[in-house]
Amino acid sequence: MKTEASLPVKSPKNYVTTRRLTERELFNRACELLEEKLTRGQSFCNPNTVKDFLRFKLAPYEREVFGVMLLDSQHQLLEFRELFYGTINAAPVYPREVVKAVIETNAAAVIFAHNHPSGVAEPSDADKRVTERLKTALNTIDVATLDHIVVGKETVSFAERGLL
Q1: Where does the MPN domain start and stop, copy by copy (predicted)?
Q2: Where in the chain is the domain with CATH 3.40.140.10?
Q3: Of 80, 84, 130, whose CA–CA distance to 110 is shortest?
Q4: For residue range 102-137, what is the model confidence (pLDDT) as tens digits?
Q5: The domain at 45-157 falls in which architecture?
Q6: pTM of the model
């Protein structure tokens, strides 16, 4: 149980804080709770679960952030990493850094994600190209790319659209 004054204290089904939280702090706390729950055995096989998790993680940002869900062979979350930070409409993505994160965590599969601060979640041609580059790089080390989620006012799944 966390005991710091600024962190939530868990009671049977309620969380209590000792001070007011900003919206961003509240989102961060919700993400921590969701991440903790999801690292305890739930597989990320349901696209809605993935979308909800990533919406909490990425929607609040005012600039583009690219992250990766690093999953084990059962598609359970090992770690979520925010890898690249950009501007209001772009973020540089380097396959080498993605491969490095995969190897460090011994991930067997990944789900990419990034936000569109404009709120329009429609994947761009650049989004499609970078996904293909990353997928190709990871295929060389036998790591599956399960999806790429774009978070805006809504979320778009490459897998659901047949783009993978």
Answers
A1: 43-164
A2: 45-157
A3: 80
A4: 999 999 999 999 999 999 999 999 999 999 999 999
A5: 3-Layer(aba) Sandwich (3.40)
A6: 0.79
